[in-house]
Specification:
The chain is 43% helix and 5% strand. It is mainly alpha-helical. It has one domain.
Length: 152
């Protein structure tokens, strides 16, 4: 299946690079942006890493909800149970890089080291917020898809 493992306890730069390269080449990636399996059977929230990957690769995100897997394979069970598995695909979430993310750090001699560092820190902080907003949008779309699937 071409699984790319991710060391969650640390920033796994190699895994991130691999995913971004694949995305830039047009390869679709199935990603579980909650970060782990939800033991409650309820949808969790997307982590901001999904926004980071979309930003780095400059690709849209297609929300996908899969329901019924909790009944089919409950936590700590080694046996599959009969269950109706349903999959819903949502409208893609366009991710456009904001101009502050694309700007190169000012390298002119007039810019002081401190100002350049502050500018880079500001851009990173704003980017993190953009990534989180994208993750929040994805979470909202998931929940709506799940409600639509369940007829709620």
């Amino acid at each position: 299946m071409g699984v790319i493992s991710l060391r969650r306890a640390e920033q796994d730069v190699a895994a991130i690079r691999t995913v971004v390269q694949l995305l830039k080449r047009g390869q679709p990636i199935a990603l579980f942006p909650e970060g782990t399996r939800q033991l409650s059977g309820k949808l969790g929230s997307a982590k901001r890493g999904v926004g980071l990957l979309a930003a780095l690769a400059k690709v849209p995100i297609v929300p996908v909800v899969v329901t019924g897997t909790f009944k089919a394979l409950p936590p700590h069970s080694k046996t599959l149970h009969p269950a109706k598995i349903r999959v819903a695909f949502g409208e893609k979430i366009l991710y456009t890089i904001s101009p502050f993310l694309e700007q190169e750090q000012d390298t002119s001699q007039a810019a002081s080291e401190r100002d350049s560092t502050r500018s880079l820190q500001d851009r990173r902080a704003r980017a993190s917020g953009v990534h989180q907003r994208l993750a929040d949008t994805l979470t909202q779309r998931w929940r709506q898809l799940a409600m639509d699937l369940n007829g709620e």
